[in-house]
Amino acid sequence: MRRSPLHYGLAALGVISLLAGLALVPLFYRAHQPLFALGMVVLLGVAVFIYTSPRFYPYRYVVPGVMAVAVFIVFPMAYTLGISFTNYSSQHLLSKERATDVLLQKQIAGDQSFDMKLYTAGDRYQLFFQSDDDDSKKFVTAPFELKTGKDENHVPLTAATAEPNGQPVLLKDLFKLQAGLKNTVAVLPTGEELRQSSLRRFAQSKPAYKLAADGSLVGTDGKSVLKANMKTGFYEDAQGQQFEPGFRSNVGWNNYWRVFNDPAFHQPFLRIFAWTIGFASLNTLFTFAIGIILAVLLNWEALKFRGTYRMMLFLPYAVPAFISIPVFKGLFNENLGEINMALGLFGLHPGWFSEPNLARAMVLIVNTWLGYPYMMILCMGLIKAIPEELYEASALAGAGPLMNFFRITLPLILRPIAPLLIASFAFNFNNLTLIALLTSGGPDFLDTQVPAGATDLLVSYTYRIAFQDSGQNYALASAISSIVFLLVATLAVVNLKLFKVNKN
């Protein structure tokens, strides 16, 4: 059977994907992510089986799309949902095992400290220590190799009367050897261990805690016992004092409970949710209304220079939003903006960024300006698809332009454009770019414990919780993101049912 170029292209794509996947597996494993490595192996196995089995030939065209959906949609949502059941935040970044290791590595200073000098001994080095308090207390190491790595390099010290015969290492070269010196533990004849405490100084130190058989951390001073509290994600002593670093732990539905029951999050959440629904709905309505009206006007055969008007009206959509929005921010500036300068001629000086209702109106105005060209182009194309015979029959019946619009144009456009209106609603529901560049969510509410603003959408409120004002609480932000996803999905299904998109 003769092979088509498409067949060879798919084979080449499969080989490239296989090699890329095989390269990712060891990277995941070295990053201590065995589940990701296993998942990659499974995906590669499925892909190889499908692309080499004649029985599954039709699926070869579907597999890339399915895998893209799994990697870029299903996995992020599952990962976000998983984080929402934890306490993951800036205070709880580490796993419990890693937090335990950090506390076990914590050192406390002892009584003895020495000035340090480093000497060369061929291709090796020698350490020379001298006490500040007693000049007779001098110690030296035998020549040793400076080592770096996970394991500490223990070198014994012996009493000395004079400095070694080698050349002292200059300060500029001492900086280059810091990795090896920090990994070096000098052991006194009495057994005490000395570690580098500054560039030219070693001091006695010992671990602050030791791991007990029951998993608790016992202080080497014998006074404190730290136990892991899985609810708070911290090691705590008998008095409840928390010791950093915190660790990630499963908190169940606690983050969702906080969203709906904790007044600190409950009060702004409801207000922001109501504004988000209103913002998305009004923007969809305004952009569609302006877009369809302009589309009808631009389809008027008697209108001259229609091409010029069409191009000028499409420009707001052609200019990137991250350029247009800062321009509008300057235009609406309360002191120097051109809009307030013009309104000042009538004695008006609105506070666009300080008054909540005006700020919301400004957001709606700017986003409507940015969104109507898209609706206009869509409606122009749909109007072209309406048979001219309908308008001719309407004219014979004596109907005017308004009757034609409401009885012919709008009903015939509304149904095919309904999915795009729903998509526009979903986009505006999560329009972080507009809020971040125009108002940053402000003006902020004055009666809430958690920073939130009058123009915050749920997505910008979530962003502030995750990365800005509220302690970088990633788990709580993930819970809100999961709620937002369910809300948008539910509203989309409801809208589809209302528009009856799936019915013939």
Q: What does this entry look like structurally?
A:
With 504 residues, the protein is an alpha+beta fold. The protein has three domains: 5-83, Methane Monooxygenase Hydroxylase, Chain G, domain 1 (Up-down Bundle), CATH 1.20.58; 108-207, D-maltodextrin-binding protein, MBP (Periplasmic binding protein-like II); 258-499, Orthogonal Bundle (MetI-like fold). 54% of the residues lie in helices and 13% in strands. The chain contains 17 helices and twelve strands. The strands form two sheets. Strands 1-2-3-4-5-6-7 form a seven-stranded mixed barrel. Helix 8 packs parallel to helix 12 (356-384) and helix 8 runs antiparallel to helix 14. The chain is elongated, with a radius of gyration of 34 Å. The model has no long low-confidence stretch (mean pLDDT 86).
What's the structural blueprint in terms of helices and strands?
Elements: H1 5-30, H2 34-52, H3 63-83, H4 96-105, E1 107-121, E2 124-131, E3 138-141, E4 153-159, H5 171-176, H6 178-182, E5 184-187, E6 193-198, E7 201-207, E8 209-211, E9 217-219, E10 225-229, E11 234-236, E12 242-243, H7 254-261, H8 263-298, H9 306-318, H10 321-331, H11 338-344, H12 356-384, H13 388-396, H14 401-429, H15 432-438, H16 458-467, H17 474-499
Parallel strand pairs: 4-5
Antiparallel strand pairs: 1-2, 1-7, 2-3, 3-4, 5-6, 6-7, 8-9, 9-10, 10-11, 11-12
Helix pairs in contact: 1-2, 3-17, 7-8, 7-17, 8-12, 8-14, 9-12, 10-15, 12-14, 14-17, 16-17
Please give the radius of gyration in angstroms.
34 Å
The fraction of residues in strands falls at: 5-15%
CATH topology of the largest domain: MetI-like fold
- Nearest-integer average pLDDT: 86
Largest sheet: 7 strands, mixed, barrel
**CATH A-level architecture of the largest domain:** Orthogonal Bundle
In CATH, what is the class of the largest domain? Answer: Mainly Alpha
Subcellular location: Cell inner membrane; Cell membrane
Membrane topology: Multi-pass membrane protein
Organism: Silvimonas amylolytica
Family: Belongs to the binding-protein-dependent transport system permease family. MalFG subfamily.
